[in-house]
UniProtKB/TrEMBL annotation:
Signal peptide: none annotated. Pfam families: DUF1731 (PF08338), Epimerase (PF01370). Residues 4-221 form the NAD-dependent epimerase/dehydratase domain. This is NAD-dependent epimerase. Residues 270-306 form the DUF1731 domain. It comes from Streptomyces asoensis. PANTHER family: EPIMERASE FAMILY PROTEIN SDR39U1, SUGAR NUCLEOTIDE EPIMERASE RELATED.
Length: 313
């Protein structure tokens, strides 16, 4: 197949591109700064010659968006929103204008769209969209607003010949440098991989191999469209998640951090504590119902596999 990855130069794009290329597909990446073979320029906002790559392709997986690993300043929040909504709109316009539109358009979204919650997991049918839940900082609503606007933009696109699905993905765990697993691993190996703010908050995650398999499953299954949760079926509290990661690295201790220590750490790392403190208890209801079987359903063995690959990097 010919598969186009707008924004495919980042962490998730690296994972997908590697796997899809290895499987023999032709992969075209759209980037604002194309650097190598298979990368072509676009601006993420306006139609241009890049749209020719979409015409005649089989699949589009749009990954573009300003990184959420930043301080949530007004400028950064605006960039997070606009880069997602604008790129989704223009991808939709390119598909609508194509003489031979792709069969499938998978659009990245995020598991963060769901409410901060401990008591029950969110699946697509019964899950509660966040933004109005009590007891959380009001500004956490921005991430939900961004995710819902992002999904609405895809939903609104008039692409009658192209099936659309929104990927409500949890953190994609891969051993690549700079990714979330790498960052958590470095902290863990420094002895800083303890629970944060008590560690009750749930962590949803997906192993990179299952992420790639789930994308392939969604490409193949003509009956699946709309929002789909991409996460392992066993989210777990942050304290257990970090304990398993310490175990995988063979690190006996992890310094616990209070909420205030996390605030200082997040400030130093130019990121936001929402990424650590929001309870994301999300499960892959639709994937499981459709018969998708995870190769890495549980975190401890998944972490062991990722550590083994990171050591061999
Ligand atoms: N990583 C995860 O675990 C995870 C989980 C759930 C959802 N997501 C979402 O999935 C998407 C991909 O994640 P990722 O981790 O691969 O992100 P990433 O590493 O930050 O890469 C995203 C790519 O988007 C492009 N981009 C950045 N700012 C842009 C802008 N203003 N306009 C157009 N393109 C822009 C960049 O490509 P160029 O600089 O080459 O143009 C960048 O490589 C993101 O939208 C993210 O929010 C990620």
């Amino acid at each position: 197949m010919k598969i186009v990855l707008p924004g495919g130069t980042g962490q998730v794009g690296t994972v997908l591109r590697r796997a899809l290329t290895a499987a023999g597909h032709e992969v075209v990446v759209l980037s604002r700064r194309p650097a190598g073979d298979g990368e072509i320029p676009w601006d993420g906002r306006t139609l241009g010659p890049w749209a020719g790559a979409i015409d005649g392709s089989d699949v589009v997986v749009n990954l573009a968006g300003r990184s959420v690993g930043c301080r949530y300043t007004p400028d950064n929040l605006r960039a997070m929103m606009e880069s997602r909504v604008d790129s989704t709109r223009v991808v939709g316009r390119a598909i609508a204008a194509a003489a031979r539109p792709p069969r499938v358009w998978l659009q990245m979204s995020t598991a963060t769209v769901y409410a901060h919650r401990f008591d029950a997991p969110h699946d697509e049918a019964t899950g509660v969209i966040g933004g109005t839940e009590p007891g959380v900082p009001g500004y956490w609503g921005h991430s939900v607003d961004i995710a819902t606007a992002w999904e609405a933009e895809q939903e609104a696109a008039d692409t009658p010949h192209t099936r659309k699905a929104a990927l409500r993905a949890a953190m994609v765990m891969s051993p690549d440098r700079g990714g979330v697993f790498d960052v958590l691993s470095r902290l863990t190996r420094l002895g800083l991989g303890g629970p944060v703010a008590g560690g009750r908050q749930y962590v949803s995650w997906i192993h990179d191999h299952d992420f790639v398999r789930a994308v392939g499953f969604l490409v193949d299954r003509d009956d699946l469209s709309g929002p789909v949760n991409l996460c392992a079926p066993a989210p777990l509290p942050h304290r257990d998640f970090m304990r398993a990661l310490r175990g995988a690295w063979g690190v006996p201790v992890g310094l616990p951090a209070t909420r205030w220590m996390a605030e200082i750490g997040a400030f130093a790392l130019r990121t936001d504590t929402e990424l650590l403190l929001k309870s994301r208890r999300v499960v892959p209801g639709r994937l499981l119902d459709a018969g998708f079987a995870f190769d890495h359903p549980e975190w401890s063995p998944a972490a062991a596999d990722l550590v083994r690959r990171a050591r061999g990097r």
